[in-house]
Design goal:
2 copies of one chain form a homodimer.
Chain A lengths: L5 H11 L19 E4 L5 E10 L11 H17 L4 E11 L5 H14 L4 E8 L4 E10 L14 E4 L5 H11 L6 H11 L5 H9 L4 E4 L4 H12 L2 E4 L10 H6 L6 E5 L2 H7 L7 E7 L5 E3 L2 E2 L18
Parallel strand pairs in A: 3-4, 8-11
Antiparallel strand pairs in A: 1-2, 2-5, 3-5, 6-9, 6-10, 7-9, 8-10, 11-12
Amino acid sequence: VRGEFAALIRLTSQLADSAPELRPGPGETWIGDDAAVVSTSSSGWQLLAADTVVEGVHADLSLTSLDDLGWKVMVANLSDLAAMGGLPDKALVAVSGPPHTDLDLLYRGIASAAACFTCPVIGGDLTNAPVLVVTVAVTGRVEGAPVLRSGARPGDGIWVTGPLGASAAGLRSYRRGGPPADPVDQALRAAHARPHPALPAGSAARLAGAHAMIDVSDGLSADLGHLADASGVGFRLDRIPVAAGATEADALGGGEDYVLVFAAPDAEAVRAAFAQLSPPELIGMCTEDPRERLLRGAPLPLAGWEHDWSGGPPEPA
Amino acid sequence: VRGEFAALIRLTSQLADSAPELRPGPGETWIGDDAAVVSTSSSGWQLLAADTVVEGVHADLSLTSLDDLGWKVMVANLSDLAAMGGLPDKALVAVSGPPHTDLDLLYRGIASAAACFTCPVIGGDLTNAPVLVVTVAVTGRVEGAPVLRSGARPGDGIWVTGPLGASAAGLRSYRRGGPPADPVDQALRAAHARPHPALPAGSAARLAGAHAMIDVSDGLSADLGHLADASGVGFRLDRIPVAAGATEADALGGGEDYVLVFAAPDAEAVRAAFAQLSPPELIGMCTEDPRERLLRGAPLPLAGWEHDWSGGPPEPA
């Protein structure tokens, strides 16, 4: 459970006392996972998620263009659906910002992501505010059972769907300024500015029988920690796949990679489900003792960016 | 079509060119109505809406307590569902604000509205920002066909589900300060601080065969104007029901009353559908000429608060 949801969880528990309609139904998952899961009148499950990007907190507009910002807030949401093994349906976009904001540029980025990942924007709101705040809410669906954070069991293999750290390394490159140093540097910047949600990989992991899954939005240490917390397991990691040009610290502590990490019992089933996709990498194993969090035998450094309300605003990027 | 949606509509048209999945399906309505209407895999329609409240733009925190603000952003959304003839399902709450914000107080107001109108909060996001920005997105449902803004026809009666202007008069009373002058003044303040979405009335209007409906969030003049614009009709109004203690100017130009205005062809059907509810009032008639907008034979004053992006921020409340 992420710190930022603690207040929302208090809210839900208050509500649950008042009426049965205000409690999750059988199979439903509300606050505390990547997306909320609600039953629909037909056979499937509907997924609902919302994510906000704030100028100066999540994005430095001197480094990030508005179309990239629009793209990224869409991707943050789509990645939440991917982490349940789901697919996107529709998006609502609520934009608050100063009157001089170049809305067309912002919407161009949103529209590109909407078209690229087939998640049309069907409504929203637009209001004035002293700083730019963009909230996207998405609906999605999942054919079978959604993959929660909480199902990992001791003995499950831990997999990641791609190398990590590219986004953090790309941000560092943007901060350094000037043109990209080489093709690797250029790829890192692209990974930061235009990340992709791992939608095919999320579906493949679900079909492979993954017990638990989360997207790496706050760094592998933090997000795998959330999965282990929710599942009540520990873990031992042998290796961290690091993107070319990034460091292991970027991989462990950098956010916004939108790679998925999942726990699955059957390595053969995983390899078969990913036959048409980039193969995921087995990085370790879930263990019995929830206090055990090891990387190559040593305690995993708990880096990562938690947008923690109580801790005050993050340093300006 | 509200001015604030113009940019979103541009976005959707850009998208519609790229792929059929990015165009509304049969019977669907996306941007431009109170809520978006999407088909579900089962028989019904799903409604989706989002609304944002920004400190200093929509709410003056020296006059509005955080629990009232939370209540009101929920009600703004629920009213959008009511205006389609629908009922609420679930809410997502995205809060951005300064670290010292009293989240428990804000959530208490949100939770009260969620409990009162049976719309549990099932997820959301929480981030830092220099000012408080609260976005709520809701899902809802409608059993039959949703009531759009665009279906009014010449000859339809125009009805409102209650007296207007109480919220604007209540805000004036709060600004005057001190304790409420009398019970009427107290009721006006309550109407401003704790408005109710007209959910039963919206369903009744749908069952009565209403051709078009909108909620009065920006003032009757502006909102009836949106309905007439979308329907391509004009109107003649004979009378405006004004809340006790409010003025006709409050009724025409004040926002946030969350009364519904609808156009319906059959007065008997309306009276029958509202048999168990406060009777709605017939205030005029839709006419052929879309340029005709009359109140008691004179041009309707076009007051109302449009949160118009291009016009710069509104005066601080």
